[in-house]
Amino acid sequence: MYLYQFLRKTFLLGLFSITSLTHANETKPTKVLFIGDSITQGYGLPREAAYPAIVAEMLAEEGILINVQNAGVNGQTIAGGASSLKWQAKMSDYDVLVILLGGNDALRGNYAQNFNAMYEDYKNLIEMSFESHPNAPVLVCRMMAPTNMGKAYIEGFNKVFKRIEEDKRITMTAFILEGVATITEMNQADGIHPNHKGHKKIAENLYIPLKKVIVKQ
Q: Which of 49, 85, 161, 171 has its CB 3.0 to 4.6 Å from that of 45, i.e. a possible disulfide?
């Protein structure tokens, strides 16, 4: 009788340990790498007030844990993003890549004479990620040119993101700065960098696409 109880207790304890380990693996945070410019960096704000940290909190409320790797660099461009990604791919591992680039290019009028080069530079970023991390989904945040850049530039710039979206391996958001760009109360005094309210809105715009990408893994 005592032997039976001992064996039964040992079996149940073993089963509980296996279940606990399985549950721990299921709740292992997804490592999300954010490649971007000063918006991703959280310019003018504490890092925890930037949209990557905010969207992590939103996901955590639903039991989806992510480990934020914020590689935002002030002044970063699409072409410069390749260097950041190359470094990050060597130094750290990630399960999902989020790219938010293009804002500085638009403000500076980059690629005005050759939007195909802009497309190639962005595609290079995507290909670099799939080569180094073939199983990591890529989520591209759509950017749009400012309305004061002229019709030709706006059309050329925005069409690049439409071309990128044709790559069925990636996921693309709607305009990531929707509800933020040009809205005074959503930005800092410079009118360019989002304030805390602006970052919360960006996180809301990113939340559903990122959640879908993570859940699909």
A: 49
Amino acid at 141: C
Please say if the pLDDT value at position 100 is more than 90. yes
Which tokens is 16 given?
């509980």
Q: What is the DSSP letter of 195?
A: -
Q: Is 197 in contact with 186 (CB distance < 8 Å)?
A: yes
Amino acid residing at 7: L
- Helix boundaries (H) for the chain: 2-26, 38-41, 51-60, 78-91, 103-108, 115-132, 151-165, 196-216
At 132, list the tokens: 């180094």
Per the listing, tokens 């960098």 go with 193
Among residues 164, 127, 121, which one has the least CA distance to residue 142? 164
Residues 6+ apart with CB under 8 A from 209: 139, 171, 172, 173
Q: pLDDT by residue (tens digit) across 170-215?
A: 999 999 999 999 999 999 999 999 999 999 999 999 999 999 999 9
Confidence tier at 27 by pLDDT (50, 70, 90)? confident
∠ CA 85-63-39, nearest 5°, is: 35
Q: pLDDT at residue 49 above 50?
A: yes
C-alpha distance from residue 205 to each of 69, 76, 145, 157 (Å): 19, 21, 18, 21
